[in-house]
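Protocol step 4 of 6: structure prediction from sequence.
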Amino acid sequence: MSKKKPTRSALRRRSRPERPPPISGAPADDYRQEILKEIERAGVPLEPEELVARLRIRTRERRAFDNALAALERAGELMQNRAGALLAAKRIALVAGRVEGHPDGHGFLVPDDRSATIFLSASDMRQVVHGDRAAVRITGRDNRGRPVGSLVEVLERSNRRIVGRLHSEHGVMFLVPEDRRIAHDIVVPPNEAAKVKAGQVVTIDLVAQPSRNAQPVGRVAEILGHHADSGMEIEIALRKFDLPHEFSRKAMTATQALPDEVREQDFEGRRDLRELELVTIDGETAKDFDDAVACRREGRGFRLWVAIADVSHYVRHGEALDQDARERGTSVYFPRRVIPMLPEKISNGLCSLNPKVDRLAMACEMEISGDGEVTRYQFYPAVIRSQARLTYQQVWERLASKKAPENLALLYELFKLLHRQRQKRGAIDFETVETRMLFDARGKIEKIVPEPRNDAHRVIEECMLAANVCAGNFISGREHPALYRVHDVPDAVKVAALRDFLGELGLQLPGGEVPTPADYSRLLERIRKRPDFLLLQTILLRSLKQAIYSPDNAGHFGLAYEAYAHFTSPIRRYPDLLVHRVIKALLAKKRYEAGDWKDLGRACSETERRADDASRDVENWLKCHYMRDHVGGSFEGTITGVTAFGLFVTLDDYFVDGLVHISELGRDYWQFDGARHMIMGERSKKRFRLADRMKVKLVRVDVESRKIDFVPAA
């Protein structure tokens, strides 16, 4: 039977290049993928209308298509040439990322793909602001081997409000940003300048972005006050670090709708622990009490209860209070002021485990053997009544007097067992000094004092660690996604450098390529009585990674735990609130869908770092303000940082650090040895090492840039 010949129209259809099917009704991600595929398929830059034709975009789909196109350009995956045609960024070797400024005027591009940071010149940085997204072309490497880039296009402006101090010169008003990573002075036009005065601190919205030949222009959004006003340093930090500090109207409405006291109807399904002798032990200035503890002897062992405020009962997933808490991520602690994660009615009221009142809690009840091992544990919702609010100092005085009441004496016995188990496990225990600022009635620092740590602090610390470990094990054993507190193993390169340094001192870090926490712990014990202990401890600490929040349970290296989750502070930490929700869901044999857990982990880690940076910035401002009255004085101190440009020295009696610039060390060529944490003079052979003692003279304090300058004292 003869085959039918193809018609001429069919032959024409076959000879045409294959075209993609229409993408009608496709989600935005599909539009983006199809756009990229079509540009790759074309092999040449395409006009937007050519893309529309090739992808058969219908009129009703045009808005979604345009949005996808804009998203690809913002992400740096597509670029427009001067003729307006679109081309794939990877075909022209462009790298997209976020711009980070440097106080010296240059900057860096942090690529989206987490590849090596790219250096940007001061000339390129004139066209962008810290926080913008940009696309750059790598043009070479500098003398340090870092990639160097040239700015091709600004992909997205950060559009953040900029806080700073107003100045006036030759009739022109301009703002100098508090964030020194923004190197631009921002011009305030005459009509805006009429509303403000030089010396005031304000926030600015940019109305004209910077270019190679023009400064940015801004509109005054908010007048905060005069730069010398009391508390201004905190107002500046809140805006400098984009810290949310006002609750949304919806969140406040939801807060007002909550009851003033715990209601009996909320007791349903909870275990009644009100007769248990639970107590809170906190610092003297604490106002929100997350945790209460109680202990009983059982044979050779103990039964420990750790009751944690049940914040999740009042702050429900996806509601306004939850959205505000997620955005904040954590409470932020400044000297004399706290920016809470939750409104005061919740943090200091309904959820604070105040004495002699009923409170809802999530309890972790543990059976602990005479060897200090948790043999069994269970979680359950409870109603409690704290019997007393105690401070660390009160508890320590009672313990030290040997006349502590039975409940505290039992807690102390249990602590010793848990601490012994911690040492047996090989957890790393660094010695650090916390400080506290004491203020006068006008808000000025009177002095900075060390914050003493005693065994009362350690009692609570060990109880909280035990509950957090139980939470981590409970969740990991049931394979439910959650956020773990992850402290990963040290980087192999840092460990190798550490071993080289220790080897020159006749010391050795045990273990293989990846040492264990016990290896670190054994070395710390061996060196604890050496005169250079502080130097060695600092170097050991710097070889470790930073702890983060992640759904990938990699364990906690420093504490030597296989699974560890933050469960004990849901009033002030969002990850703890998430862990409570997961535990409740598992108890109910359900699942808690929080969203993208990786994104949540990244966001919580970032808000934690943001809070730390803001607190440190305020403390540095206050320290600089304090040290202005001591210019010209000589002080004893310790070298706590060694860099290619000088030495950072921390003063003994003031707990303040400043820089001895390399140019102040004497007439010599100074060679920086990063591996040995040392600077050495070529001619004099004089050495300055980390943890060396040094006498310095205070010569300069710059409060605005948070800088203190020393010179060596005779």
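Step 5 (inspection) to follow. Residues 1-27 have pLDDT under 50 and may be disordered.
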